[in-house]
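STRUCTURE:
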């Protein structure tokens, strides 16, 4: 699906910045229809946005990347969400040949070896499929929040981002929400959530690479925990910061 290059003048971006989360989702659905979508890994923020969209703009697309290494809890949770909201989640997967080649060259557990190999695995399993998902969108809606980690503190609610040579409007409707805000919404609206949170996970990604966190730790400390001692341990997979791997 070929998309147009999106352009927005400062006035529109300012207007969007003044909207709350539900208004932003509604605006995206009304103005961009099938070219807007929530891209989520089914963490708590994604669930909040899906719940809001079910009222504010029913039919808004929901897309996810299936790395083939998700927890069983996550796979069954995606089905639970589909059932609850009567939606069909669009799954983007890695190219089998790329995964096969990577494993042949570096082994299945290459992410233990070095930061570069972890980023390479993330590139093959996450970033590249995510890029194909974004190629179908003009408006990328994501659950990034400022308080998720040190590296996300500057997350803008509304921004323009370049993706494969074209401009994409990136919306983070919950950018300014706290963790407490997210859970309060979930409990108030009886929103289903991934049961891994009840097992101590504060960030959810691939099995092995994501582990539960201890009280007081950064929310993303459980990601690639074996790199925590590195001086500058970047806890991003590349989807939101342009990582390319080795
Ligand atoms: Fe590979 Fe781990 Fe990244 Fe998943 S989180 S894509 S298994 S390195």
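SEQUENCE:
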């Amino acid at each position: 699906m070929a998309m147009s290059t999106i352009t927005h003048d400062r006035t529109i971006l300012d207007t969007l910045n003044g909207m709350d989360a539900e208004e932003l989702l509604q605006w995206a659905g009304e103005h961009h229809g099938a070219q807007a979508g929530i891209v989520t890994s089914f963490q708590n923020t994604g669930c909040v946005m899906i719940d809001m969209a079910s009222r504010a703009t029913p039919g808004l697309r929901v897309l996810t990347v299936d790395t083939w290494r998700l927890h069983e809890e996550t796979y069954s949770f995606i089905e639970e969400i589909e059932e609850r909201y009567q939606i069909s989640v669009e799954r983007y997967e890695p190219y089998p040949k790329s995964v096969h080649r990577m494993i042949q060259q570096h082994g299945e557990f290459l992410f233990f070896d070095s930061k570069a190999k972890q980023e390479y695995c993330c590139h093959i399993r996450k970033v590249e499929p995510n890029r194909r998902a974004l190629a179908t969108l003009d408006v990328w809606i994501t659950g990034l929040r400022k308080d998720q980690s040190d590296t996300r503190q500057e997350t803008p609610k509304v921004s323009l981002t370049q993706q494969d040579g074209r401009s994409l409007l990136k919306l983070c409707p919950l950018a300014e929400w706290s963790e407490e805000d997210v859970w309060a919404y979930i409990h108030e609206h009886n929103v289903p959530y991934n049961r891994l949170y009840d097992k101590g996970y504060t960030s959810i990604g691939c099995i092995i690479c994501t582990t539960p966190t201890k009280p007081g730790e950064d929310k993303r400390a459980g990601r690639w925990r074996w790199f925590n001692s590195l001086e500058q341990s970047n806890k991003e997979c590349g989807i939101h910061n342009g990582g390319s791997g080795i």
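REMARK: Residues 67, 69, 111, 118, 121-122, 125-126, 205-206, 209, 237 surround iron/sulfur cluster (CB under 6 Å).
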